[in-house]
Amino acid sequence: MSHATLLPTPNRAPMTNEVLRVEGLRKVYNEGKPTAKTAIEDVSFSVERGEFVCIVGPSGAGKTTMLRCISGLAQPSSGRLSFEGTPLTSVPAQLGLVFQDYGHSLYPWFTNAKNVGLPLAARGMKKAERAHRVSEVLKNVGLGHVEKQYPWELSGGMQQRVAIARALSYQPDLLLMDEPFASVDAQTRFDLEDLILTVRRELGITVVLVTHDIDEAIYLSDRIVVLSGSPSRVREVVDVPLGRQREQVATRASAEFLDLRRHLLDLVMPHSV
Ligand code: ADP
Fold this sequence. Notes:
Blueprint: E1 18-29, E2 37-48, E3 52-56, H1 63-70, E4 78-83, E5 86-87, E6 95-98, H2 102-105, H3 112-122, H4 127-140, H5 156-169, E7 174-178, H6 186-203, E8 206-211, H7 214-220, E9 223-227, E10 232-239, H8 248-253, H9 255-268
Parallel strand pairs: 2-10, 3-8, 3-9, 6-7, 7-8
Antiparallel strand pairs: 1-2, 1-4, 4-5, 9-10
This protein binds adenosine-5'-diphosphate.
């Protein structure tokens, strides 16, 4: 379970348009020791309320490190991070986290409903209200029928839906996802991508998703932050003007999509195209 779920829900921050700001982020592991390793050199970007932003970069570019800093789980070596206008010093209560490894993020001895309700229980929500919210959010992810089952009775894609439902249960202002669809088959991946676009549209949440998959980033995003290789810098922030309605076959075959794909490939593999 993410640490974010352990914090009490504070009064909502005043509605600023900017949900996340990352300024001059630098992260060095084992700083000052012979084993020092610079994972992030200099990264800056911001995310507006309601936006879907993907972060792409090659393996080892520091994407996971950056998400750990953004989610308050790791301290940056330098730079400034703010969440809804407030300096980020610990895990923001209004942050939802979804990781790639759904298998390890759900408790096998709890029913799916209990897994989804855990952050609500940690926030002191009464049982009846909790049951209602859990039902609602499981329906939002197309799993209204599995409340009484256990995670191990579900397919990988369904387990990831339960993990998404849990992250959505406390209505986060920002959903942060680390390669969330990397461990499922291609068809399930498309289904989950469409699910997250629908959830985003219907619930109006802001999403930051890390992926190494350029096509996935274009399909999902309003903007893409393209990172260089290790230690990472921002190569470019690319606008994705494909509109809100996307469809797996038609969108991916459109001229705009293919142009963006070529541009992004040029950025991440400058010598290959
Ligand atoms: P990505 O998610 O883009 O694959 P990571 O953030 O996992 O990249 O890693 C970036 C770099 O930082 C890698 O070179 C990795 O070996 C290094 N790194 C990650 N975590 C640690 C750690 N806890 N201690 C030392 N080095 C680390």
